[in-house]
Amino acid sequence: MSKTLLIVDDSSSMRQTLGIALRGAGYEVVEACDGQDALGKLDGRKYNLIISDVNMPNMDGISFVKAAKALPNYKFTPIIMLTTEGDATKVQAGKDAGVRAWVLKPFQPPALLDAVAKLVSP
């Protein structure tokens, strides 16, 4: 059975790049353009992993993670932050909110796929 991942990023080119890498590795991918859009897609579907940007309009990544973790169906869904933001305070805020991994952009697809494979439960 294939695993479904939710990608949350306001950059359509970033969603496209991620989508190509992840679909190429055999994952199903659902895309959202910001935290609010992503919350609308947390409608009971099973996601094995969420990859989110931090800086987005309408709802930023950390707020989205907090909101997602408050939903019973997604409380234990692993979340990777994929961002240009390397600030220690932001990283800590992400960890406190429930982020499992922090990957900096520009990312190397093999390194990201490795992180994804580690977090996607069998």
UniProtKB/TrEMBL annotation:
Pfam families for the chain: Response_reg
Domain Response regulatory: 4-120
4-aspartylphosphate modification, residue list: D53
Keywords of the record: Phosphoprotein
Keyword DNA repair: no
InterPro entries in UniProt: Bact_response_regulator (IPR050595), CheY-like_superfamily (IPR011006), Sig_transdc_resp-reg_receiver (IPR001789)
Superkingdom, taxonomy of origin: Bacteria
PANTHER family named in the record: CHEMOTAXIS TWO-COMPONENT RESPONSE REGULATOR, STRESS RESPONSE REGULATOR PROTEIN 1
Protein name as catalogued: Response regulator
Organism expressing this protein natively: Uliginosibacterium silvisoli
